[in-house]
Design brief:
By secondary structure, this protein is an alpha/beta fold. The chain has a single domain, classed as 3-Layer(aba) Sandwich (Aminopeptidase). The chain has an 8-stranded mixed beta sheet, sandwiched between helices. A two-stranded antiparallel ribbon has the order 7-8. Helix 3 packs across helix 8 and helix 7 packs antiparallel against helix 8. The longest helix has 22 residues. This is M14 family metallocarboxypeptidase.
Length: about 300
């Protein structure tokens, strides 16, 4: 029997109140700089991109301007490809993969499709290497009319005038060992539920939309990434993180009903990447390269199949 794991904050079986959320927040420490790692990188991308501020987060004493990158040759006659990173700020390659794609491949799509890159949706989470925002709310469960994460609300406001024009959306994520050791136990404690281990898949995988799975699209992305890093196998029960594996490296979630970022638009082609940076078979360079390969394959497939 697996021993029950208790989180150090809260009382088992009781959801957190404001006291527990405040205690959790007081224990978070800034570990890296959004200004240096993201905003400075964005400032060097003016050759092929227009930088658009789309809001700001005031988490006193911290203040975060939110920025997106638009194709410099944006045309209202073209569909849109959306790339999002850092919805979970601690998932490093999602942020740096989005920035690398913008720096190295933005020009490849000029005149073909509008590209919108939002490299770091959750800057506080990026700096504090956290899944949640300071209110202990998960932005990647907040892309709905009832969502409470300010990060998600700001992004939805940015996307609202463009709804109906998105062809493809790829949301860049990681699954890390800390998911099992830190973040899932914290989630269980916050919600007053028992922690149930799910394991961490060893390798890259995708989360498609169970309401619009697009299996050929998902496999095109997997095939491209497989040239860069290994794809996670199913466990002994044919699952990954508790969900059935529906194809090589792919599981599906009902993304809209869960409030996931991948459901923030009605794009025909949508997927969430999951890189495994803690694998002994992967390096940070491979993780970033895998994200870039996934973005390119997703947009290329969408352009080829309409």
């Amino acid at each position: 029997m697996t021993p029950q794991r208790f989180h150090p904050i809260g009382t088992p079986g009781q959801p957190w109140g404001e006291a527990e959320r405040s205690l959790w927040r007081s224990r978070q420490r800034r570990q890296r700089s959004y200004a240096s790692d993201v905003l400075e990188a964005v400032a060097h991308l003016h050759a092929h991109w227009d930088v658009q501020p789309y809001g700001e987060l005031d988490y006193a004493p911290d203040f975060y301007p939110l920025v997106a990158l638009h194709s410099a040759d944006w045309s209202h006659d073209r569909p849109i490809a959306l790339v999002t990173g850092g919805v979970h700020g601690y998932e490093t390659s999602g942020v740096h993969g989005a920035l690398r794609f913008a720096a190295e491949h933005g020009s490849a799509y000029e005149g073909r499709i509008n590209v919108l890159v939002v490299p770091c949706v959750s800057p506080w989470g990026y700096e504090h290497v956290q899944r949640w925002n300071p209110a202990a709310v998960d932005p990647n469960r907040s892309f709905s009319a009832h969502g409470k994460a300010l990060e998600s609300i700001a992004l939805m406001r940015l996307l609202a005038p463009m709804q109906g024009r998105f062809l493809v959306h790829i949301d860049l994520h990681e699954t890390t060992d800390t998911d099992e050791s830190e973040f899932r136990p914290a989630l269980a404690a916050r919600d007053g539920k028992p922690f149930e281990p799910e394991g961490v898949p060893d390798g890259f995988y995708l989360v498609g939309d169970s309401e619009n799975p697009q299996p050929a699209f998902q496999q095109a992305v997997i095939a491209a990434v497989e040239r860069v890093t290994h794809i996670a196998p199913a466990d002994a029960d044919g699952k990954m993180i508790g969900s059935p594996v529906v194809a090589h490296g792919v599981i599906n979630y009902p993304v809209k009903s869960l409030g996931l970022c991948a459901g923030a638009t009605d794009a025909r082609y949508a997927t969430t990447t999951e890189v495994y940076p803690d694998s002994p078979q992967a390096t940070p360079e491979q993780c970033n390269a895998a994200q870039v390969a996934a973005v390119r394959a997703a947009i290329d497939y969408a352009l080829a199949h309409g």
